[in-house]
Structures are given as structure tokens and as C-alpha cells.
Design brief:
By secondary structure, this protein is mostly helical. It contains 7 helices and no strands. It is 86% helix and 0% strand. Helix 1 packs antiparallel against helix 5 and helix 2 runs antiparallel to helix 3. The mean pLDDT is 88.
């Protein structure tokens, strides 16, 4: 009877070990499958977000670029600036949900400052545009918006083969380029 009990105990322990190993393997397989599904969903969402950005960002980029060129050529009038503010604010109202958190912060800061300028008067605007330093500051802030859009689209990740690279100024880009290409 003792031998039969020992054989039964060995058989039972074999079955329990097999069941435990099977459970662990199944659990690991389910976990890896869930992770694969999460990554696939993330990839699909990222593709759709990128496509939406590609279709809407050019409008904002173009608006900001026209404004920068007008300031650089000193051909911007107060009414032009107010129109620019209205256009970029409207774009943000429609497409702001596509912006990354960093880009949205830059847009918010830019729009808040642009609203203050647009709510001033033509004389104050002309005084601002007449000052070389204030004009450069307006251009730098607009360039931050351009770069935020490019960062969101991944332009620099492709160019510099680095998924973490983000720039706040064109000087940053030049310094990074010089470092990479000596």
C-alpha cells in the first residue's frame, strides 16, 4: 500500500508540475500577445495621427512662414498682423487637438502674445515693428511655432536619425548639424 501511495503521489506531482508549467507558459504567451496588440494599436493610432497632421500642419506652417517673411521685409501692417492672428487662432481652434503637448504649449504662448498685440493699436504695433530687437523677438517666436510643427511631424527624426531630437531654434539645428558633420 505504501508503494501504491508513493506511485500515486509521484503521478499527482507530475500532473501538478505539468499543469503549473502549462499555466506559466500560457500566462507568458497571453502577456506577450497583449503587448503585441497594444503596440499594434499604438502604431495604428500613430499612423492616423501622423496622416492627420500631414494634412493640416501645412496650413499653419504656411501662415506663420508668410508672416515671418512679411516681418523680415518690413512689409507687415497692423491689419496684416491682426489677420495673421485671426488665421492662426482659427487654425488652432480647429486643429489644436493634433498638437503634441510641447507644441500646444508653444502655440498657447504664441497666441496669447499675438492676441495682446492684436488688441493694441496700429501705433503700438508700428513702434514694435520699428524696433529691431522686438522684430527679431517676433520672428523667433514664429520660428518656434514652425519648429514645433516640424518636431511633431518628425522631420528632424528622419534627418538626424534620432527619435529623441527636438529643436526650439534654428540655431539649435545648426549646432546639432555641425556636431554631426563636423
Amino acid at each position: 500500500m505504501k508503494i501504491e501511495f508513493t506511485v500515486a503521489l509521484i503521478s499527482l506531482s507530475g500532473v501538478l508540475i505539468s499543469a503549473l508549467v502549462s499555466l506559466l507558459i500560457s500566462k507568458r504567451k497571453i502577456k506577450s500577445e497583449l503587448e503585441r496588440l497594444r503596440l499594434e494599436m499604438h502604431h495604428n493610432f500613430a499612423d492616423r495621427l501622423h496622416s492627420a497632421r500631414l494634412s493640416s500642419y501645412p496650413d499653419a506652417y504656411s501662415e506663420v512662414e508668410k508672416y515671418v517673411k512679411a516681418i523680415q521685409s518690413r512689409s507687415v501692417e497692423f491689419e496684416d498682423f491682426c489677420k495673421h492672428y485671426k488665421n492662426i487662432d482659427e487654425w488652432h481652434s480647429i486643429n489644436g487637438y493634433l498638437l503634441s503637448s510641447a507644441s500646444n504649449r508653444d502655440f498657447y504662448t504664441y497666441l496669447r502674445r499675438a492676441r495682446q498685440i492684436a488688441e493694441s493699436n496700429a501705433e503700438a504695433f508700428l513702434e514694435r515693428i520699428s524696433s529691431a530687437e522686438k522684430r527679431r523677438e517676433l520672428i523667433r517666436k514664429a520660428w518656434e511655432i514652425e519648429l514645433a510643427l516640424k518636431n511633431d511631424l518628425g522631420v528632424f527624426r528622419v534627418e538626424f536619425y534620432n527619435p529623441d531630437v527636438k529643436f526650439k531654434s534654428y540655431r539649435d539645428i545648426d549646432e546639432h548639424y555641425q556636431k554631426d558633420h563636423g
